[in-house]
Each structure stands twice: as C-alpha cells, then as structure tokens.
Amino acid sequence: MAVSLPELAHYAGYFFDTRILGKRKPLVGGINITSYCNLTCKHCPYANPDFLPREHLPLVKVRAMWERFLDSGVRILFMQGGEPVMWRDAEAGWDFDRLVDEAKRHFFKVACVTNAILPITNRCDLVWISVDGSPKYHEAVRGEGSYETMVRNIAESRNPNLHANVTLSKINVADIEDNVANIARQMPRLKAISFNFQIPYPGVEEHALSFEERAEAVDRIVALKKKGHRILNSAGALRLMLKPGWNRTHWLVQLGHPDGTLVDGCGVRLIAPEVCEKCGYGVMAEVQAIYQGKPSSILAGFKLFRVI
Asked: Using CA atoms, how far apart are residues 150 and 146, in angstroms rounded to an integer?
C-alpha cells in the first residue's frame, strides 16, 4: 500500500489551497455507519442505547455522504461505529465487506475501526483494532472473553494492514508499557500502535483522564517511542491534546452520523462544548499537527500509509 503520484499531487494541491489560499476544506472524511455494537465497553457512550438509537445508516445515505466528501475534495475515508463490521443494508443485500470494496473504487485510502470480535475479512487499506490493554485491562474495559476473541481474529485475518488503536482512560492508563510489550509479543501482525484519550462524554466522564494525567501518559508514550516501539503518534500531536480547547481546526475532518447528518469534526461541540474542550481524538490531533507543518507529524502520516 503506497501513495501514488496522483495522490501526492492531490495532497499538494490541498495544502496549497488551505495553507496558501486560506480555503477551509476537509482532508479526511469519516462516517459512523452504525450505532450497533457487540460489546458494552465501560468508556463508550454507545454502550448505552438511550444515548443513541440503534440503527444502520442505509446504503443510499452512505453513498450520498461519499458524494459530498468527494465533491469537497476528501480522498481519505474512515468508517466506524458502533462496530462497523456489523453494518448491513438488508434491502440492498450489502454487508460491510462489500461496502469497503465499493468505497475503494472512489477513495485513495479507506480505513475502519473495529473491536475484532467478528472476523476481519474486509480489504480496508488500514484497519484500526481496539486493543485497550493486556488481557486483564482489556477485559476490564471490554468484557470477559473479548481479549481471546480479538487475538484469534487478528491472527486469522488475511488483511495485511492491521494496527492497534488504544484509548487511554483511568481504567487502563497504568498498563501502557505492558500493553505495548504484549501487543508485540501476542499480536505481531499489528504493524503499529496509535493512542487516543477517552473523551468525557456524558455518562462515562468518570473514566476520563485529567490533563495532568494525560501529560504523564504522554511522557511515557514518548519514552516508548524513543526506545524504538512502533508507536505512530507524533510527539507534537500528543502534546497538542494537553490543553483545554486545543482542537480549533474542526473543518479538517468531516464526520457523518447514522441519522444522516454531516458535521465538521465530530460535532459534539454543537451540543456539549464543554466535552469538546477535552477532546482526546488522536487522529484529529495528528491531522491538525500535519496542517500546522510539524515535521514529526508529517513523517508519521507518511509512515501510516507506507509512503516511506
């Protein structure tokens, strides 16, 4: 999976338009294609059906969002949930794997986030797998039996582009070093690790780290990077997330929701700005750091899609 010359030309044009001409255009598009999930994780608001009705985004609405993304210049697509692998459109006869194959016909890169409770059979260019700790900690977040199932499905997947995605909270922050070591030991097919901080959504805010606790965690993560561990987050992007209100370029990422709405960023600032002030979305930080021209973040982005 490399970046082609047309892709490089597209990104060069994007940064000319945004950095030189001052246009506000999204770089990445994401869609929460379903609010169904097969786990009830302690740090996740989706675990509460009262927080968000259970629904799959119909194929016709997914395609409509794709068109809007493409029209605005987006060529990197993320599909998430809920658990995106559970997505179905029974009337159209489509499952998630078919949706991925169709998306790859339109976008340069297609990525997804999964808990790996179901087999990983899709052909996404990048698959983020939620690994929230070594066995004890992972199951404290995601439930008994989730770790063993995840490890098995990672080992059995034929997709060559698997990465670990860790969300840090009060539940698992003590496990950073052991988790990184355990991923290398038990899940060698995971090519690298990315860290996020739990966002204090209503109902699960008790598990979110304070900014002081985030800072301590960032120091530990950076120390692991210096030792050569395969951690994708750049130090610059990690440190962006250490002050309230750091996320000021929401328009770099557009996100679609199962009800069909499309907003800049995740949209939480429109209904709960106090939550947005404590954003812990690592991808958003990385994209913002790239936009700001931080060399370490640009290098991390290139490594992610194996340009170098």
From this structure: 6
Q: In what order do the strands lie in the sheet with 253-256?
A: 193-197, 162-168, 126-130, 109-114, 76-80, 28-32, 253-256, 262-264
What is the pTM (predicted TM-score) of this model? Answer: 0.91
Query: Is 127 within 8 Å of 92 (Cβ atoms)?
Result: no
Cβ neighbours around 245 below 10 Å, total: 11
Least confident of 33-42, 187-196, 266-275: 266-275
**C-alpha span between 244 and 58 (Å, rounded):** 36
Lookup result for tokens 């557009």: 254
End-to-end CA distance of the chain: 11
Contacts of 254 (CB under 8 A, 6+ apart): 26, 28, 29, 30, 69, 72, 74, 262, 263, 264, 265
* pLDDT over 50 at 307, yes or no: no
Contact (CB, 8 A) for 73 and 12: no
Position 88: which residue type?
Answer: R
pLDDT digits (tens, 9 = 90+) for 78-94: 999 889 999 999 999 99
Burial class (CB in 10 A: 0-12, 13-18, 19+), 293: exposed
**Rounded CA gap, 25 and 64, in Å?**
18
The DSSP H or E segment spanning 111 is: strand 109-114
Gap between the Cα atoms of 208 and 43, Å rounded:
8
Q: Determine the Cα–Cα distance for residues 292 and 52; give it in Å rounded to an integer.
A: 34
Q: How confident is the prediction for the chain on average, in pLDDT?
A: 90
Entry field: residues in the chain: 308
**pLDDT tier at 304, thresholds 50, 70, 90:** low
The C-alpha atoms of residue 120 and residue 118 are separated, in whole angstroms, by: 6
Structural domains present in the chain: 5-95+109-284 (3.20.20)
